[in-house]
Design brief:
The protein is α/β, with parallel strands linked by helices. It has 15 helices and 15 strands. The strands form 3 sheets. Strands 8-9-10-11-12-13-14-15 form an 8-stranded parallel barrel, surrounded by 10 helices. The protein has a 4-stranded antiparallel sheet with strand order 1-5-7-6, with no helix packed on it. Strands 2-4-3 form a 3-stranded antiparallel sheet, covered by helices on one side. The longest helix has 23 residues. The structure holds glyceraldehyde-3-phosphate, 1,3-dihydroxyacetonephosphate and zinc ion (ZN).
Length: 414
């Protein structure tokens, strides 16, 4: 491995490596030549030998190279890395041939900023789906492939506690390596400052959410700003949150509602001060399966006003629809969620039309999983093979995610 690295590096006037924290596991065997469509995974060094192949070396380092081939070679590198160009920093000042690659990622593992900027320009939303295990990830990736859609894979603090940051991260990296469409690996609702820092330093995430929404305004601004500075140095995007994500029915008076939902002018000030890349807003949605007792209701006027004040992509949390057909299966086979109610598809569509570019879904995957497992076990009480038990649940989740991708308008945008 060392030999291969040395032989390669001779071709350059100078090769610098900077240590980069990363998980210890090796995803790709050193020296394996791969097609241009796949790039080395985060934290691995790599070199482009020619237009069509990449040799990589498990050095656990980021790399800066000075190419003897001059701008021609640099152009070629840039061309090859075009899909991940926000991970590249080209130093134009001192030396025209200097390229710094903060870290290399699989070609489809991209930042939230990049995916959402396109969504903002073209007025659609990208779904953010929570995973806790392999089956959820497989179901989501299958949907993204079938719908040719970009996708955001999210891990909450609870998911990390359950399955592990490195475990979920490496599974997602592998999935992204095989994907034909952009994948964002995102930390959802990072409330614990140390965990957010750990996620940034892990080299796994291309985006983190720092959720300081329950803090006093000034403290939310101060901490979000700190996270943004840290994350941006690594080419990682930051989503922040302002306002309390709670259902409209949770407020007894207009005053109370105004005090909790996102204030458009404050949102403008928050984005200007923090420099965050996306903003989660509170307009009447809430987390979980019980959002409304009657029909869904969102504060669209507030959304329009926020959109006028905030130019970065907006995020809608608590956006599950609790589809009737899935709920019917769950309840038929014993799950007690008959009163659960989510946001209607029509309301999601309207929110996207008015400028929401990221829509967060977790509960809909949970009930699809539940429905699949319950029905299968009821119909096949003799089966004990977990692969057979979980298969139908995965299929149901894929159906749900495919529907979301079409609803959000991200299908065929990958
Ligand atoms: O927004 C919250 C997500 O639904 C994650 O839920 O904290 O139970 O993993 P969790
Ligand atoms: P749901 O509970 O509506 O799926 O919301 C998920 C979410 O906002 C994750 O951040
Ligand atoms: Zn959320």
């Amino acid at each position: 491995m060392q030999e291969a690295f040395d032989a390669w590096s001779k071709g350059f006037e100078r090769v610098e490596t900077t240590l980069h924290r990363r998980p210890r596991s090796t995803l790709l065997p050193p020296g394996r030549v791969r097609q241009m469509t796949t790039l080395p995974t985060v934290g691995q060094t790599g070199c482009i030998q020619d237009r069509h192949s990449i040799d990589h070396h498990d050095r656990g380092a980021t790399i800066a190279l000075l190419s003897p081939g001059g701008m021609h070679a640099i152009d070629r590198v840039l061309e090859l890395f075009d899909r991940v160009h926000d991970h590249l920093q080209v130093k134009e000042s001192n030396h025209p041939n200097y390229i710094k690659i903060p870290y290399l990622s699989t070609i489809m593992l991209v930042s939230l900023k990049k995916v959402l900027e396109k969504a903002r320009r073209e007025n659609y939303a990208v779904g953010s789906f929570n995973i806790n295990n392999l089956e959820f990830l497989q179901a989501i990736m299958e949907a993204a492939e079938a719908e040719k859609s970009p996708v955001i894979i999210s891990t909450s603090e609870g998911a990390i506690e359950y399955a592990g940051m490195a475990e979920l991260g490496l599974l997602t990296h592998l999935a992204a390596e095989r994907s034909k469409h952009p994948v964002v690996f995102h930390l959802d609702h990072g409330k614990n400052y140390d965990l957010v820092v750990e996620a940034i330093k892990s080299g796994l995430y291309t985006s983190v959410m720092y959720d300081g929404s329950s803090l006093p305004y000034k403290e939310n601004v101060r901490t979000t700003k700190k996270i943004v500075t840290m994350a941006h140095k690594q080419g990682i995007s930051v989503e922040a949150e302002l306002g309390a994500i709670a259902g409209i029915e949770d407020f007894v008076s207009v005053e109370e509602k105004n005090a909790h939902l996102t204030d458009p002018e404050q949102a403008e000030d928050f984005v200007r001060q923090t420099g965050c890349d996306a903003l989660a807003i509170a307009i009447g949605t809430s987390h979980g399966a019980y959002k409304f007792t009657e029909d869904s209701a969102l504060d669209f006027k507030r959304l329009e006003a926020i959109k006028q004040h905030v130019k970065i992509p907006l995020v809608l949390h608590g956006a599950s629809g609790i589809p009737e057909n899935i709920k019917k299966i769950c309840t038929k086979y014993g799950c007690r969620i008959s009163k659960a109610k989510g946001v209607s598809d029509a309301h999601i569509k309207r929110a996207v039309k008015l400028g929401v570019n990221k829509v967060n879904i977790d509960s809909d995957l949970r009930i699809a999983f539940d429905a699949g497992v319950r029905r299968f076990l009821h119909d096949n009480p003799e089966v004990i093979d977990p692969r057979k038990i979980l298969g139908p649940a995965k299929e149901l989740m894929t159906r749900v995610v495919r529907h979301k991708m079409r609803l959000f308008g991200s299908a065929k945008k990958g």
